[in-house]
Amino acid sequence: MANQEIYVRGANDTEARGPFTMEQLVSLVEAGQINAETYFYDSATEQWLMIGSNPVMKNALWPEKKKMGFKQKDFNVVNAEKTDSAPPITVQQFLAAAEGKTDDTKDKKDKNVIMMSAAIWGTRSAAAICLLSAVALILPGIDALMSMDLAKILDKPFVVLGLVDAFIGLLLLLGVITIYPFVRFRAVFGLGFLGFLFLTQDQATPMIAVAAGSAGLYFSTIFLSYIPLAVSALVGLGGMAMLATISYS
Length: 249
What we know:
Blueprint: E1 6-9, E2 17-20, H1 22-30, E3 39-42, E4 47-50, H2 55-61, H3 91-98, H4 111-138, H5 142-147, H6 150-154, H7 157-173, H8 180-200, H9 204-220, H10 226-248
Antiparallel strand pairs: 1-2, 1-3, 3-4
């Protein structure tokens, strides 16, 4: 039938069209000019028959498309222990796992959560260092401060710097981290100004204490991981505690 010449006509047509090859009829089907109710001339029976009634013609012009599907596979749970006695997971356990607080997820804790927690401890450490620095600087001039004599207070610059440190420490305790740039400036200023004064007075121990305290204060506002933060906090607190001890004695 592929090489056969075929004539076609509509149900109400008085004239036939053709001859057409099978390939040409396929093009007419795609163009919408032929459908299953179109007649074709069957030379074997010498009759006009509907294309849809002839299985060979119908399959040639409208081949059945193979249905595509997916082979169903068994779903196996990965890394799951089969046990009938396992209790259901509670909401609290689910949240703890998401926060990395369980034995199975503690090594997968979100880094952002760790950095946020470290930043909070860094703020607290910086506050404690500033308050210790305030104590160390105010102690030598406590009499001038208690007298509330402005002239005497201004005559002791360490007291003024100590009051600034106390104010900074209180703000940091309240969680005001927008003053971090000023805190870092205070650390650098303290290292330069106080360190220079102690150096010119040949006081090595206070100079070392100021250097340690200032460095600890500076890096406590920078590090966002626990180990370097802990080192910075210990160095800063140790330095300011040493300076406070020297001032008290």
